[in-house]
Amino acid sequence: MNKVLGREKVRVLLETFRSYSLHRSLMTLRRPLVLLLLAGATALSSCTTVRQGEVGVKRTLGRLDQQIVVSGPKAFNPFLTTIIKVPVTTQNLEIRSSLPSKEGLSIASDISILYRVKADQVPNILQTTGLAYENILILPVFRSAAADVCARYFAKDMYSAERSAIEKAILTQMNGVLTTRGFEIENVLLKNITLPAGLAKAIEDKLESEQEALRMEFLKQRETRDAERRVIEAEGQKRIAVVRATGEQEAAIIQAQGKAEAMRIEAQAVRFTNQLIHRDLSPAVLRYKSIEAFRELAKSQNAKTIITGGGNTPIVNMLAE
């Protein structure tokens, strides 16, 4: 009986040892695979990429690093560290808000706030404000600046060219508060301004009246310019006529003077010729010329009667001729 019990105990011990050995061998085989899977999972989760236009800040065990992480792939321990990414490009914050006017009206408007986070101030922003800085800081500062600036202007100013001055004033006031906090407000744009119905109609009527007044003033100036132009043209025509008449008169005078001078010269020539003739025609020459004339007359075959001047003229025998 003791021998049988001894054998049974030996068998149970052998089975127990065999089971333990098999389990140990299986655990030995699985351990490298588990370690490899854990290592791969750890490697994949401990790398991130900071993209262009954003910076990262490491937070290790709840403490923020004061050095920023620039763009590119970054490795970190996922069990201890987290990288917080913040965009540093220009952001557009669109809101719909009511703006007060100087006369106490409420003007609805769509507003675009263009702002940029300063990269070197990102750790300080995360430390003091957190990632919800738009709702915590930028919007309250805008509402305060808009209420302060718009209350200085009438509602019609927001609907006219004064809107640009309002936008610049809000921008300046916001930067006065947010620049030291790590933000730069680049522009504030008021869009789709909606005035109360009655005020909008009154402004439109006033603008139409102003446009009509400007149109009438333009017409008046145009008529005045046309009248001045006609006066100038008339004066020019008058001056032209005076110059023309003066020229014609001077031309007539010059022409008359020329004719008188020509007649004078001609008279002088005739007088000089007569003087020459009178000087050169002596009695002997005159008698000779008479004889020559009678001879020429005597050559004619026709019958003729010649009357002489008396004894001073020689007698020509006509028959002999």
TrEMBL record:
It is found in: Membrane. SMART domains: PHB. It comes from the Bacteria. Keywords: Membrane. Transmembrane segments: none annotated. Residues 45-207 form the Band domain. It is a single-pass membrane protein. This is Prohibitin family protein. It comes from Hymenobacter fastidiosus.
